[in-house]
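TASK: fixed-backbone design
INPUT:
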């Protein structure tokens, strides 16, 4: 493997395994799924290196089979949050003083564990707990997380190597210190890799962390914690707690040593967190770093010159992979009238081939949405479309939660470009399509740009380079990740750093050095070798 700065291996993207029939990885994953389905989980919190259990046990059920109990996790309260904060602060001095090479080694080892002996387990836990099919689990829990670990180490070494110029007689250097206090990581259900990256990135830079995962992703979070411990993360550096969001936020955001938050979740929650931080700003020792990604209302716009089959496939994959529960999932589509049939027909044909059901059946492309609340919201939106005079359903429209939370991939065709499902984030397998007149391409871009509060991802499909450039420039603020002739999902660490603006977050680009810079407080040091002994400058000399 090639070497980077400071002789650290240069990160390379983890190869994606196929899980095709008769492959070793498929057999190993099937075995792991069978084992995990038949072992009752008892998941503790991890605080200061100790497993902490309570009398309040919460059951865990696969979204696709809610009659099956995978086991239980131990719910905490404010006392456990206090314990986690205290443990993080206690561990901080030793962790901060540890040489960066040893922090790097721990997380490089974690990457090899994820990509190697833990690959089947982390993928299986993601499939069962979050209802992802084998491929979606592989590209997320195994590959993307290994990439986050390896690339972040490379970015850390690049940051440390960036030093200022020094004039003769002096030496200037920058010390990249961790933040003063502890960092809070609040992580989502939809990507195991994000759940692992949010506490890991600050920890890599020398911070200690209190981590609260989504209650619907506790299973995979526990496996990640197991990997951290196996890799050698010291006690108290990352503390995993399960408590209600308001309880954790109250204790964390009111603490004087709160130094920052690394967040992925809903816009409303993030805005409330920001508001609370502002209200408490006079209590903190420093100004907290606020880093967040909050979802989107991601778009595809097709120009009349587009490759129609590519657009159709982009809608199907971009809108329905992982049940449309990716932050980047395509959820609103604008297609030209003259090409509409060429796009819609193959889209419907591809959708007709998709099977829906349990992810342990490798023939199923579509699985369940995450929980009943999500199911009910999506079902209500579908029912509203059925009753609307401005919309009609041209594909899907069915749903059933008798055995699991299954929403059929659904396409709504609307005559109103500002119809509710063109504006509001649904986070599910529902795509809304609007057909525009060919000569109103620029006008449609104006509508697109002003319709939604979000600006995470978007795509233009065009074989006309002038149109592609026009869209790229016109929609420059509409998406933090923009795609030309590709679906708006699938950002790869090291290739497409991820994040958006407007209501989609702070755009600090996970999977890049710019994100890691948020978790350090640089100190500039100037050393003068031969200091001046007189205040006078040459201009004071007499002529």
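OUTPUT:
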């Amino acid at each position: 493997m090639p070497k980077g700065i400071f002789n650290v291996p240069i990160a390379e993207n983890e190869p994606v395994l196929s899980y095709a029939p008769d492959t070793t990885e498929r057999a190993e994953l099937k075995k792991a799924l069978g084992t995990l389905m038949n072992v009752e989980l008892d998941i503790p919190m991890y605080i200061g290196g100790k497993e902490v259990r309570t009398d309040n046990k919460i059951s865990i059920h696969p979204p696709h089979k809610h009659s099956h109990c995978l086991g239980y996790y131990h719910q905490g309260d404010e006392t456990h949050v206090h314990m986690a904060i205290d443990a993080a602060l206690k561990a901080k001095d030793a962790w901060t003083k540890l040489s960066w090479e040893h922090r790097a080694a721990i997380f490089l080892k974690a990457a090899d564990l994820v990509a190697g002996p833990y690959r089947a387990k982390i993928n299986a836990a993601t499939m069962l707990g979050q209802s992802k099919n084998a491929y979606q689990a592989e590209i997320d829990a195994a590959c993307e997380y290994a990439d986050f670990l390896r690339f972040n180490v490379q970015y850390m070494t690049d940051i440390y190597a960036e030093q200022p110029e020094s004039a003769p007689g002096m030496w200037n250097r920058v010390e990249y210190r961790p933040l003063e206090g502890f960092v809070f990581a609040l992580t989502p259900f939809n990507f195991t890799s994000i759940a692992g990256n949010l506490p890991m990135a600050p920890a890599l830079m020398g911070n200690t962390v209190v981590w609260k995962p989504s209650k619907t992703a506790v299973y995979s979070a526990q496996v990640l914690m197991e990997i951290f411990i196996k890799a050698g993360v010291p006690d108290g550096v990352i503390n995993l707690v399960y408590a209600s969001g308001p309880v954790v936020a109250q204790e964390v955001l009111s603490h004087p040593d709160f130094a920052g938050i690394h967040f992925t979740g809903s816009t409303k929650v993030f805005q409330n967190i920001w508001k609370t931080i502002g209200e408490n700003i006079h209590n903190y020792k420093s100004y907290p770093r606020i880093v967040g990604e909050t979802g989107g209302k991601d778009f595809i716009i097709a120009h009349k010159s587009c490759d129609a089959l590519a657009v159709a496939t982009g809608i199907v994959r971009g809108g329905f992979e992982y049940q449309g529960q990716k932050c980047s999932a395509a959820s609103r589509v604008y297609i030209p009238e003259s090409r509409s049939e060429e796009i819609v027909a193959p889209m419907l044909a591809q959708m007709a081939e998709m099977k829906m059901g349990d992810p342990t059946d490798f023939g199923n492309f579509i699985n369940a949405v995450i929980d009943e609340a999500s199911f009910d919201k999506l079902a209500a939106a579908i029912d509203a479309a059925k009753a609307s005079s401005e919309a009609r359903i041209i594909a899907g429209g069915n749903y059933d939660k008798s055995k699991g939370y299954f929403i059929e991939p659904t396409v709504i065709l609307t005559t109103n470009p500002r119809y509710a499902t063109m504006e509001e984030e649904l986070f599910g397998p529902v795509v809304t399509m609007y057909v525009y007149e060919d000569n109103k391409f620029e006008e449609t871009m104006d509508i697109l740009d002003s319709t939604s509060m979000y600006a995470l991802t978007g795509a233009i499909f065009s074989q006309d380079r002038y149109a592609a450039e026009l869209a790229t420039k016109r929609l420059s603020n509409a998406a933090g990740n923009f795609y030309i002739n590709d679906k708006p999902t699938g950002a790869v660490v090291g290739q497409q750093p991820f994040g958006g603006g407007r209501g989609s977050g702070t755009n600090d680009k996970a999977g890049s050095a710019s994100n890691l810079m948020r978790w350090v407080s640089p100190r500039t040091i100037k050393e003068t070798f031969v200091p001046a002994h007189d205040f006078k400058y040459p201009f004071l000399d007499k002529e």
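COMMENT: The radius of gyration is 25 Å.
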